[in-house]
Amino acid sequence: MEDKALTQAIIGAAIEVHKALGPGLLESAYETCLGAELNALGIPFKRQVPLPIRYRNEQLDCGYRLDFVVYNRVVIELKSVDQISPIHRAQLLSYLRLSGHSIGLLINFNVTRLTDGVTRLVQDYAKP
To answer: Beta strand pairing status for 103-108 and 74-79?
Structure first.
């Protein structure tokens, strides 16, 4: 599956979750339901993927987790906040850099129309 088609499929799955649940719930509810939706679509993913940090040639577990990694290519960061702020984008960009993935979706479920809560970020980082 090409990257654009893959991100469109992920966004479509998130829209289905949002249609069913609406805004105002905890991020964990959307995460669980998005996992179920991706499963139903046959889209392979991993949830809560550990993200160690390499510091001074040592790999350290600092407790970071990627909400989803889809097809081992797309990092999804979920939010349920009043609005996406620059720190949320910076967080996803850092996750992309640290993981070596180049495509990220920042999805905020706390919006009236989910398409208003989706940000697609693309970076060209070499794997660490």
So the answer is: parallel
Predicted TM-score (pTM) of the model is 0.92
Give the separation between CA 85 and CA 119, rounded to whole angstroms. 11
pLDDT above 90 as % of the chain? 88
- Low-confidence stretches of the chain (pLDDT < 50) are 127-128
Q: How far apart are the first and last CA of the chain?
A: 24
Check residue 42 and report its DSSP letter: T
**Residue keyed to tokens 């980082």:** 125
What DSSP line would sit under 11-37, residue for residue?
HHHHHHHHHHH-SSS-HHHHHHHHHHH
Over residues 65-84, the pLDDT tens digits come to 999 999 999 999 999 999 99
